[in-house]
Specification:
Layout lengths: L1 H21 L9 H22 L8 H25 L2 H10 L7 H7 L11 H12 L3 H4 E4 L5 E2 L3 E8 L4 E7 L3 H22 L6 H14 L2 H14 L6 E2 L12 E5 L4 E2 L3 H6 L4 H19 L1 E3 L7 E5 L6 E5 L5 E3 L2 H16 L2 H10 L6 H9 L3 H6 L8 H13 L1 H10 L2 H20 L5 H22 L3 H29 L1 H16 L1
Parallel strand pairs: 5-10
Antiparallel strand pairs: 1-3, 2-3, 3-4, 4-6, 7-9, 8-11, 9-10
InterPro entries: ABC1_dom, ADCK1_dom, Kinase-like_dom_sf, Mito_struct-func_regulator, Prot_kinase_dom
Protein name: AarF domain-containing protein kinase 1
Family: Belongs to the protein kinase superfamily. ADCK protein kinase family.
């Protein structure tokens, strides 16, 4: 009798499951056992592939390098499929990995970059449910129009264009309804799997990735925090007239719904869009560098997700001025004063090719004996270029290949370094790589002006810090005069570079040469 009752209960449960799935009330991805099983299976297959494919091949041989590249590619594709299937937190972490150029093998970064365009979309019913639960009204009560197709979908949320009852056009950011419930379980699962992999491969040290996700994901899932960040950065950078940050409409915003001013434009890495709309690519790259130098070195409050979908450009038809529009303010890194000063001085040393100070400040930031690798990771340049001076010559194609091959060769040392540096550094490295990706797409990478802007910000930041610690009027005046002189020297050098590259400069040089030959 008990066995028969158990059979009936099992049949009823199965029938209910099929009915719910068929009616789209429940997605199999919502079942923890499905998500966990998929993650375990993928991790097991990737681990087995690495253990067996390279076992009997001589290390360092051409065959070894070829097979290793193939294993990297297969593993990256399996990881991408896992992220797309489990969605949410998995896609977020996968996107983070895809942004770590020069830190991970190219096979991984190239394969995982597509996750920015493969994020899941919530259905209209799910969107209505979130708005109803958080704002207490139906969509038709709040908006005159609401576009069903999202402007963009990300790992944690999607954005829709809408028009309020008073006629204002807004962007409505709505969190995927299942992300909150799944995120903590997903992170715990990743942590367990990474610990198991580390037992098999002792050199594999990616626990820093889970620690960062633990800390940052709750902040990114709180849209009120995102709104506060947007207002803070808009106020902080108000002197930059080329920057636009959407205004937040607080009366219709909650932890899962964010209403903001609607702004549109082309993605910052879309060179064709800029050329078509008469936007100066070099000016945009220069201004983007100014923004981030100011955030990192001067303010210590850094927007850490500048992938192209979050940074738009638009030319005002009336004034002809090109603007940078900064979106998605969920993830910011707050830098401590001591960290920020060490980071400023390290970059000053890198720009001046002062190797003693590069070593000193790299060690202070946790790099230890791996300071040459740390300098290469920060600058995305070879050690030879770092010694010569990173502002002396642009990145060549051969140097780019060398950097990427070194990323694969030194993966154990890179993971060790990432475990040793302060947690603040991890998001800065990600930000650096995203910015370099934009510069590469625009062909403006490693321009002299970007280093000059960084130098200005470092000088201002260090001088401000020194004045705050000085109790002597004479000392403060001396610091201010030294700061003014250093900034004046940079301006003079920038003028020299402009003259050197301009028609007027060429004419002056030709005239001086003639004068020299005539004498």
């Amino acid at each position: 009798m008990a066995r028969r009752a158990l059979k009936l209960a099992s049949l009823a449960a199965a029938a209910s499951g099929i009915y719910l799935y068929g009616n789209k009330f429940m997605d199999p991805n919502d079942f923890g056992v499905v998500r966990v099983g998929r993650a375990i299976a993928t991790t097991a297959v990737i681990t087995y592939d690495y253990l067996t494919s390279l076992r009997n091949v001589p290390y360092g041989s051409e065959e070894y390098d070829f097979l290793k590249s193939q294993v990297h590619l297969r593993s990256a594709e399996r990881l991408r499929e896992l992220c797309c299937a489990n969605r949410g937190t998995f896609i977020k972490v996968g996107q983070h990995l895809g942004a770590l150029d020069y830190l991970l093998p190219e096979e991984y970064t190239r394969t995982l970059k597509v996750l920015h365009s493969q994020a899941p979309q919530s259905t209209r019913q799910e969107i209505e449910q979130v708005i109803r639960e958080d704002l207490g009204k139906e969509i038709k009560e709040l908006f005159v129009s609401f576009e069903d197709t999202p402007l963009g979908a990300a790992s944690l949320a999607q954005v829709h264009k809408a028009v309020l009852q008073d006629g204002r056009t807004v962007a409505v950011k709505i969190q995927h309804p299942k992300v909150q419930a799944q995120s903590s379980k997903d992170i715990f699962l990743m942590e367990v799997l990474l610990l198991i992999v580390k037992q098999i491969f002792p050199d594999f040290e990616f626990m820093w990735l889970v620690e960062e996700a633990k800390k940052n994901l709750p902040l990114e899932l709180d849209f009120l925090n995102e709104g506060r960040n947007a207002e803070k950065v808009a106020q902080m950078l108000k002197n930059f007239d080329f920057l636009k940050v959407p205004r937040i409409y607080w009366e219709l915003s909650t932890r899962r719904v964010l209403l903001m001013e609607f702004m549109e434009g082309g993605q910052v890495n879309d060179k064709a869009y800029m050329e078509k709309n008469g936007i100066d690519v070099n000016e945009i790259s220069r201004n983007l560098g100014k923004l981030y130098s100011e955030m990192i070195f001067v303010n210590g409050f850094v927007h850490c997700d500048p992938h192209p979908g979050n940074v738009l450009v638009k030319k005002c038809p009336d004034s002809g001025k090109a603007y940078i529009i900064l979106l998605d303010h969920g993830l910011y890194q707050v830098l401590s004063e001591s960290f920020r000063m060490d980071y400023c001085r390290l970059w000053q040393a890198l720009i001046k090719a002062d190797m003693k100070r590069v070593q000193k400040y790299s060690r202070r930031l946790g790099a230890g004996d791996l300071y040459p690798l740390f300098a290469c990771m920060l600058t995305a340049r070879s050690w030879e270029s770092v010694n010569r001076g990173i502002d002396q010559s642009p990145v060549s194609a051969s140097e780019d290949v060398e950097i990427r091959s070194n990323a694969a060769a030194y993966l154990p040392q890179i993971t060790q370094l990432l475990n040793n540096v302060p947690r603040q550094m991890l998001l800065l490295l990600k930000t650096n790589d995203l910015l370099r990706g934009i510069e590469s797409a625009l062909h403006t990478r490693a321009s002299a002006s970007s280093f000059l802007n960084m130098s200005r910000c470092c000088i201002r930041a260090v001088s401000t810090y020194q004045r705050s610690k000085s109790h002597s009027l004479y000392r403060r005046v001396h610091i201010s005069l030294t700061e003014a002189l250093s900034l004046w020297q940079i301006n003079l050098y920038e003028l020299f570079l402009w003259l050197k590259g301009s028609c007027l400069g060429n004419w002056v040089i030709a005239f001086l040469n003639r004068m020299h030959h005539s004498t």
